[in-house]
């Protein structure tokens, strides 16, 4: 049975209950040995988890009772969240309103359901069909004693980070160094990865903290992917050059 490493974009499609993507994803997962990582789980929490919290806060403070009111409030939140986050929240909203099957709803009750989903059911859905979880980064943000802010935002400072990210990077120094020195490879990487690589190659501890760590998330995930597994992503543009440079393979379902 082929081993596949499922990264963040695939997991997000699952958790947003995309009606087109989910059946296809679940079929693939059931036919393969599935691997993911605690770092991927962290990325899901700091994106989808935060989106849930935005919606919860909106329901509790604005208390919309109709779909149109909820859509208007979401449309005025451009200063709070990105367009990518808004898209995810629309998926979440559509899924829950379809379950309610009503043009009106009780905002407090819906907020309760979303909070329950965020606290318990996201974790359950994320790890469903997962056979192996790798943890080379030992990310602080998924530790039991880490407390997520009431805003739903997760944060990490380099000065206090106790993770093993620098050790993962140090262990792969022999393949990371050429990424920076080989222009044919370096120029194909996304701009954020290029910037951070320049900063951290002399001292891998500089990779810690959200500013740098989150900017090289695709690189970290590619390094985490076991050599005998193929990496499954929807973001081929970012991961293809990384996989080629680091000797990893992409999973391309039929």
What does the model show?
This protein is of the alpha/beta class and 254 residues long. It has a domain of 176 residues. The chain is built from 13 helices and five strands. A five-stranded parallel β-sheet has the order 3-2-1-4-5. The longest helix is centred in the N-terminal third of the chain and has 24 residues. The model has no long low-confidence stretch (mean pLDDT 92).
Q: What is the tally of beta strands?
A: 5
Distance between the termini: 15 Å
Order of helices and strands: EHHEHHHHEHHHHHHEHE
Shape: globular
Question: Beta-sheet strand percentage?
Answer: 5-15%
Ranges where pLDDT stays below 50 over 5 or more residues in a row are none
Features:
254 residues; 5-stranded parallel sheet; alpha/beta; single chain
Question: What topology emerges from the helices and strands here?
Answer:
Elements: E1 3-6, H1 8-15, H2 21-30, E2 33-37, H3 38-61, H4 67-75, H5 83-100, H6 107-127, E3 132-134, H7 165-171, H8 173-181, H9 183-186, H10 191-200, H11 210-213, H12 217-224, E4 230-232, H13 236-246, E5 249-250
Parallel strand pairs: 1-2, 1-4, 2-3, 4-5
Helix pairs in contact: 1-3, 3-5, 3-6, 12-13
